[in-house]
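Before the break, one more example. Copy the sequence into your notebook; we will annotate it together after we see the structure.
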Amino acid sequence: MFKRMSLMLVAVLIVFGGIFGYKAIGNHFMNQFFDNMPMPTASITATKAEPDRWEAAISAVGSFVARQGTELTSETSGIVREILFESGAAVEKGQLLVKLDDSIDQPELARLQAAEKLAHIELNRNQRLFQERSVSELDLRRRESEAEQAAAAVRMQQARIAQKEIRAPFSGILGIRRVNLGQLLSPGSAVVSLEALDPVYVNFTLPEQRLSQIHVGQQVRVRVDAHQEQAFEGEITAIAPGVRPSSRSVEIQATLQNPEHQLRPGMFGRVEVLTGQVQDVLLVPQTAIQFNTYGNSVFVLREEDGQLKAFQRFVQTGETRGDLINVLSGLESGDQVATSGLLKLRNGAAVKVSDNGNAQPSAELNPQPANQ
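Here is what the structure looks like once it is written out:
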């Protein structure tokens, strides 16, 4: 019995030992194969780091607001009898836009004017009689008071009628009409919006650290998505006296001429505050940069052992404009860097630069991608 058990244990050890031994030997040779397997040559695009000169500017984002803008409303209640404007029309200051029904107010004005006329006639008569000492000074003062009250009543009625006429408080462009003929308006009812668009303001904020670099009269350049091919010039006209405690930023307002009304209130603008200085920069496409929390890097290409290889190098980056980024340190002018296929690369990897021009990523200072 003991002999049988021993033979069975020996047989089991031989079988399982052979299986595990075969597996270990297979894994060893497989790992050795993958470790020594040559990496395929990666196809990439590349460009050279080029020096340039940029006009120093402080970048910010802002929003356009009208020089003057308001929502015209009715001061009093009444029925709309006349609408004297078209939506989107240009109007001048004082132009009559809407007239409410004043058929009851006009006769009342005529009555008060007649009473005023009579009060002045009686005042003139009493003035003559007073000079002849036929009436007392008290009677004369009473007639003067009555004449003044009659004149005040006329002015009040005229003001009440004027409230039935909605006029443009300043020159500008009207919005969409919100009233109709025959509509009953109550005090505060919206009639139409009015915006003065030339000039126009752009409001933006900058960190408090930039306060020493900005001043009233400084030139700004603004770009908007609606007119990507054009840069609008203006100047800083106001700087807020205080800094926002929540964000430690200061609010700034610039004024831009807008004769063609291309800039509209509410539009988003990319603002550049020009400092008047010119700085030397070293530019590479943004696609060449690997942005990481532990530091940004690029892959620099150079010949080694008769083969073109990529080597990772950490760089310090600065301002970006369009598709380009300024490299502050880590590269030299003329260094060739990979601009696409970075995910396929590792330090020392063999590469091949593609000669397909369509594969090269865009690298423009002011890119204007076409709508698809």
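The CA atoms of residues 293 and 314 lie 12 Å apart. The longest helix spans residues 2-36. Try to locate both features in your own notes.
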